[in-house]
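Retro notes - structure team

What went well: the batch runner handled both jobs without manual restarts.
What didn't: labels got mixed up in the shared folder, which is why I'm recording both outputs here explicitly, each with its sequence directly above its tokens.

Job 1
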Amino acid sequence: MTLEQLAKEHGVRRSDGVTPCVLPPNVTATAIDGGKALLKLTRRAVESADESQCIIKLFGNHSISTASFAMYTFSAAVLVQALVLISFSSVADYG
């Protein structure tokens, strides 16, 4: 959950690729386009789930959803752990 939240803080909306998923705490509704902020928030709530999905950009042009980012990170960690375990098991056996 924490990794997904960190990815979401650095992510943008899939619909436009510019709007941040999470606004910084010091930004208020008046700081964002004045009265148009409420209209943006209303429009965002009406959008479909696919368009309001948060993505992050990896390695240039590749984008991935924040939920998938957490899953891929855990998978990579398990792969590294498996490789390390296999590599060092002979050291334990033959010391």
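Job 2
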Amino acid sequence: MSRKPSRRPKFQEKLARDRINKLFHLLDLKNFNAQINPKKCINFVKQIGKRYNQRLPSSHRLKFCRRCSTKFSSDNSRFRISKKGWRSISCLECGAIYRFKI
């Protein structure tokens, strides 16, 4: 008989959420370029989320492109709000377009 896979302990899930929040806090710092590459930081966040099965909150999901893992800024992205109530974010690096209902 096969064993039923068990869930991770709560402290591991909390630790994963704390690590994700800490990495996003590092992304928001002004002098971030000296510490770590933003693409590498976003890849770490994705790995932690996959490994510990943690969903990212919508506030964190809107900060980077899911296809090319670049942090959105005014140089490499375009934010638009349509008259029909959609928010569209265009990544100028890879051309991906994300649409969200407001």
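One thing worth noting from job 2: The first strand starts at residue 77 and ends at 81.
We'll revisit the folder naming next retro.
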